[in-house]
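Reply to dn_fold:

You asked what the input looked like. This is it:
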Amino acid sequence: MNSAPVLLLLVFDAALLVASSVLSDREKRSRDSVLLNVLFFCSGMPALIYQVVWQRALFAIYGVNAQSVAVVVTAFMLGLGIGSLVGGRLSARFPRSGILIFGLAELGVAAFGLASLRIFHWVATYTAGANLFSVMLFSVVLLLIPTVLMGATLPLLVEHLVLRTKRVGFSVSTLYFVNTFGSAVACYLSATFLLRDFGQSGAVTLAACLNALVGAFAYVYGRRKGPQSGPVTPTTEQPEPGSTGMSLGTAMVLAGFSGLIALGFEITWFRVFALASSDRAPAFALLLSTFLAGIAAGSFLSEKLAVRCGRAGIVQLLGVFLVFAGALSAYLPPLVALLMTHGISFLWSAPAFFVVAALAGAVLPLLCNVAISPDQRAGRRVSFVYVSNILGSATGSLGIGFVLMQHVRFFPLAIGLAFAAVLAGTALLIFSKRPAGLPPRWALALIAAAFVAVPASRGVYRLLFERLIFGTRAEAAKPFERIVENRNGVIAVTADGAVFGGGVYDGYFNIDPMDDKNLVARAYALSAFCPSPKRILVIGLATGSWAQIFANQPQLESLDAVEINPGYLNLIPQYPMVRSFLENPKVHVYADDGRRWLVAHREARYDAIIANSTFNWRDHSTGLLSVEYLEQIREHLNAGGVYYFNSTESDETIATALQVFPYGLRVINFAAVSDSPIVIDRIRWMNILRRYKIDGKTVFEPANPAAERVLAAYVALVDTVNAPPRFLGMESGDSLRKRLKGRRIITDDNMGEEWRSGFAIPWH
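and this is what came back:
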């Protein structure tokens, strides 16, 4: 994955930082201001690392289904919002001790960070598998202390800097810039090497050490300087009667709305990047790095523009930024698709996303500039605007990511967000005059152009998902036969029945062994080594083809199936070969995260657990491959039970399974592992296959020559178990152990191949 475009954007932000330090006047280059910038930049880096790692750790406990993701993200934002209020209160009560309290907050975050993963794992033993309300409650409790401490830092340092510079706009934009830039750098480092090379625990330890250094330095510096006294004199930033200064309440409303829009942009953009990258973890981190870098640049440049246009023009400037952000945002998803169809990395669209994020990032500092006076209550007022922005973002996470994406298709949602931003900007341009009236002609022209440009984008959305998923392949020009969109992602089906979930190949609607385009031989092979699969658990339903085969296994008594994306349940009834699966009285289907479901049903035991797992490099795939997950599987197997899973041709996944289970067998690219010896019984297997019926029809009809040829091929497959290993064959556990000796073992901490991005995408 070529991350160069994102790196160039970070270099641009770094150049802004250097230029600010070198070219600004003596007041801005005071040692105190430079120190605050360095400290707050370094503070932003661990904050983002914590967010990425802690969310993943909580997802491992509470699941990565849409419900759990939404509440965990919201809990994180809620803690930041409360922290902002706390920081504002402290800044008002101790206006000249801000840097000292900031140091203590950083030390507190460092202490929690060092113990955080152990705390999460300890809590998991008591709360894993809880219901949705409990997940939200536990997430808030777990994240409350560190996020409150993080959220308190901005108001504290704003108050400290305002008392020295007498400039609210400069203080907020500078601190917001350096802190957000630090987070953007941390995102980039996480995507390129940090999580890949250090894992979750190593990354958190590095983040905690950085917090400790920042906190210790800030505390010592604050103690040495001590509280500084001296009256605060008003400056020209103080709103005067009759000026265009904005009320604090209006600024809070606009901050909340801009936070909602910005989070909505991020959610829709993530869906685009997920499809274009085939759902790889580094893609989201690089998108977030671009988003944060853009917000940082917008924050920095907004203050420069505000100085030039004065207070009278700031409200108009806000309106212009929002109108441009809305109009441009409508064209970003098609831009990514256009690059993909020309064989250009989707990441080269990052500069365009950066520009829109910069326009959105300018809003918060400009609002603080126009609505807040540079006095001893500046920090507290900033906290009100900041918490409004955070609450708006949290509302966007729940309202857009959880509710609207379940019911609204991608194009209307993207256009709706674009129109919302344009409307907000239009309102600001109209009401920037007092009394409100028609804006200048240039503003009217801008508004009219935006209202034409947004709906005109409809034409470039044609075949959007096809182009994002297939890129330069011929399939990009053929519309999908069916598309299901919901909060969990996008499921698309081609005309020949190939399914792509989240932009990644996810199987075919096919159960016919005589037309075996999806290697269902691996599913029919279960009875070769599993003597009596009366109770079966299937983790990952997808097309339902494999589950349909298992549901009609002659020895079956009951089958439980767990599928994280309920959208597949809408597709299955539309395909005759699997339609009866959902009507089978032996079958029980659960829409849930597989790992979370196992924890919530500790008493359930099975003769066979099957997972036709997705590719081992996909985002969050470790959750169904790690040692910790396999230990859970082991607890749910009856004596002699078998876990049968798709290794996706990864030696590491098989080596990891053999680390937990003493016995193993490879069947093509599937692996069977067990606590009991795995014995292949060819005669039993053939007898069971000849008894197989699906929807009343014998699968291997004796009078059908093609069926007899398939059965003969299956017999030949068994003969390969003692031959030199080959892909289309079987391989014994002893051979696997010898061949895979020394392979890395996948854990929740090291996350397997998720953060290793240098590979080609296998489509089938």
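The chain has a mean pLDDT of 89.
Hope that clears it up.
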